[in-house]
Amino acid sequence: MIKLNLQKISGTEVLPLAEGGKGISISTGETCGAWAAAGAVGTFSAVNADSYDKNGDAIPQIYHGSARSERRRELIEYAVAGGITQAKIARERSDGKGRIHMNVMWEMGSCEEILTRILEGSKECIHGVVCGAGMPYALGEITSKFGVYYYPIVSSARAFSALFRRSFKKAQDFLGGVVYEDPWLAGGHNGLSNAENPAEPVNPYLRLVDLRKTMNDFGLQSLPIIIAGGVWWLSEWEDYIGNKELGAVAFQFGTRPILTTESPVAKAWQPKLMSLKRGDIKLTQLSPTGFYSSAVNNKMLENLLELQERQAAIVESSPLVVRVFGREVCVDPSQSEKITSWIANGFSTAMITPDDTVVFVTPQQAEQILRDQKNCCCCLSMCRFSSWCSHKESTGKIPDPRSFCIQKSLQAAAHGGNLDQSLVFAGHTAYRFGEDPFYENNFIPTTRQLVERIASGY
């Protein structure tokens, strides 16, 4: 048995176990409230969260504005309404126990406005805000105005140091802890820097020791480090508990809570998750955010990876010319044989990329890419796929046809779409669903059963 002592998190002593926030619409008020009711920390995602009609059905997030600026306002209103809805559900389901946290992605479109308005509209519901995917310098300033704790997600001591020195020291009283998310093991968007090799994982213990030393240097010895990414059985992390070098630690579970009775996608995702094998989660840089991310290797990812291979460099002069929507473009003549093969296999439409290459797709793919780019609803602060940028309304670069609409794909995965053709974020230990005896005979536990199982060490 693992000995877990209660820890003070967001002002109350709870089990040092937290639900990892998963958007879009995977971590909800139902899942969050159930984790809190079990005496732990629940987390709902405020990234395009669902709100409901009078029948309890999720309201489809359909955009009617003809201009991007109009669709951006629609997205903000959907996001605020959904976040407040999920916060109130979480509070009701929690029975006044545990802690309720909200997860936001700093690089989501209009994050500061959405975060502020959700906190305004859900007073006394939310105890903490967890935030990653970017450098959230204004996070502490915003949450502290509402008396809410904040938890930055970082993947290195260096990142936390920059955040604390620049802004968090001004709102130190409401800094509740630091989430260390291992960039080689966690699901979703990861904080892997350009200086780090995605194929060469670093021992998380060494990075955690470095983070704790940095926190101690700032006088933050009492704050917990919440370890996220790769955590399945606590028995495998026993040396981290009560460790003097690490100090107070808690553990965040992002992947395992997908299969609980409260999860909105458990039944739909179960066959896929139970069939996964080691290595079926891929770490790529395909996201339109530009960040690395980890997801199930399905047909969608395979198509995107193949797409990266079907491109040729644009050159100033060449006997090899391709037509791009009526315009003639010179390309690297050494790619002639490959281009001929691509066209013969149906990839006959060339599209220009921001990196001075042309990529070859089918006419149907080109039509879908252009349609999705045109329908951009500004879900990110900066998007490679559509060239949207919150501050200037354009990145100044042409849209990148090698990427995809992440909002559309995540919405599909969460609301009954084809999982083989949608983006399915998951941590690299997701293959363990099929190996863990807890899930034998397609067993789906309640959240309380899962929390009790985790607390036992397994």
Structural class: alpha/beta
Distance between the termini: 9 Å
Number of helices, counting only DSSP H or I runs of 4 residues or more: 12
Tally of discrete structural domains? 2
Q: Which CATH class of the largest domain is shown?
A: Alpha Beta
Tertiary shape: globular
Largest beta-sheet characterization:
8 strands, parallel
Strand order of the largest sheet: 3-11-10-8-7-6-5-4
**How large is the radius of gyration?**
23 Å
CATH topology annotation of the largest domain: TIM Barrel
Can you tell me the residue ranges where pLDDT is under 50 for at least 5 consecutive residues?
Answer: none
> Roughly what is the average pLDDT, rounded to an integer?
95
The CATH homologous superfamily name of the largest domain equals: Aldolase class I
Order of helices and strands: EEEHEHEHEHEHEEHEEHEEHEEEHEEHHH
Strand content: 15-25%
What is the name of the CATH architecture of the largest domain?
Alpha-Beta Barrel
Number-wise, the strands total 18
- Helical amount: 25-40%
